TrEMBL record:
Protein species of origin: Wolfiporia cocos (strain MD-104)
Main localization (coarse): mitochondrion
Keyword field contains NAD: no
Name of this protein: ATP12-domain-containing protein
Record's keyword terms, sorted: Chaperone, Mitochondrion, Transit peptide
A single Gene Ontology CC term: mitochondrion
Length: 286
């Protein structure tokens, strides 16, 4: 068994950039994070973290275990909230490195909102090996298509019309031509239902996703408020930055007209890119 040990600070440039980024003020529940395996049940470490919110490990490492990578704290492998080993296939070395970096850069206090890769991988392992859960999530995500951001267009102001044409129109044309489906759009508050054939086809597309793609699709949809932006990201039609710009067309048009609201627009700017970036990184095979 070979181990890759990280001495503090791990990936200093990456760590520094993360520390400089504004932090989302949304509350987080620790039960959604990975825990450390020990001789007792998985919940033991979870309770310990919830009770103390303190860093209780000294070293972070990555170990090779058969055909997978395991991130370790004090040589003990991380586990998901469901108690499963948090193991990554060998083509997910980058993901393992990012998870290790997240835990290494926890200082005296544990900050769950700075563990986006850990929570996303845990979600993939715990939820998307179960077919019933996959089916339920697919149905839930398709509901976002009913109110998809990029299907609601405005005829004014000019800056908004320009941004819609730049970021939304290419995605609508892409999904229609790639999957041979029709999508409804509107310039009012009401959107005609998308054809049943469209919903069926897009459900079939998601049914072919692996657990990593499903986890990325779920996070990207909830973050962007758009099924179609998320689909384009997961299928690598667009980058995380392009997905962020597409999801913020209306916000960016307001910023261009009225300026940026401090501690609101700037915080949201970084949080959206953190969430979409983690989804994009999960899909990497590096």
């Amino acid at each position: 068994m070979q181990a890759i040990r990280f001495a503090r600070p791990l990936l200093p440039a990456l760590a520094a950039s993360w520390r400089r980024a504004p932090i989302s003020r949304q509350p987080f529940l620790l039960r959604t994070q990975a825990t450390v395996a020990d001789s007792g049940p998985a919940v033991t470490a979870t309770n310990r973290a919830e009770a103390t919110l303190k860093r209780f490990w000294k070293t972070v490492g990555i170990e090779e275990r058969e055909d997978a990578f395991a991130v370790t704290l004090d040589k003990r492998p991380l586990r998901t909230p469901g108690g499963k080993p948090l193991l990554l296939p060998r083509n997910k070395r980058l993901v393992a490195t990012l998870i290790a970096s997240e835990w290494e850069n926890q200082e005296s206090l544990l900050k769950p909102h700075t563990l986006p890769m850990t929570s996303l991988v845990s979600r993939a392992i715990d939820a998307f090996v179960d077919e019933q859960t996959r089916s339920e999530v697919r149905a839930q995500l398709l509901k976002y298509l009913e109110t998809d951001t990029i299907c609601f267009h405005s005829n004014e102001p000019e800056v908004l019309v320009t941004l819609q044409a730049e970021h939304w129109k290419p995605l609508l044309e892409w999904v229609q031509s790639t999957y041979n489906v029709e999508t409804s759009t509107t310039d009012s508050f009401l959107l005609a239902p998308h054809p049943e054939e469209t919903l069926k086809k897009l459900d079939e597309v998601m049914n072919g996703f692996d657990l990593w793609q499903m986890a990325a699709m779920e996070r990207a949809t909830y973050t962007s408020k758009s099924f179609l932006i998320a689909l384009a990201l997961v299928t690598r039609r667009i980058t995380a930055e392009q997905a962020a710009l597409a999801s913020h067309v209306e916000v960016n048009s307001q910023i261009e007209r009225w300026g940026e609201v401090e501690d609101s627009h700037d915080v949201d700017y970084h949080d959206v890119r953190k969430q979409l970036g983690s989804a994009a990184c999960l899909l990497s095979n590096l």
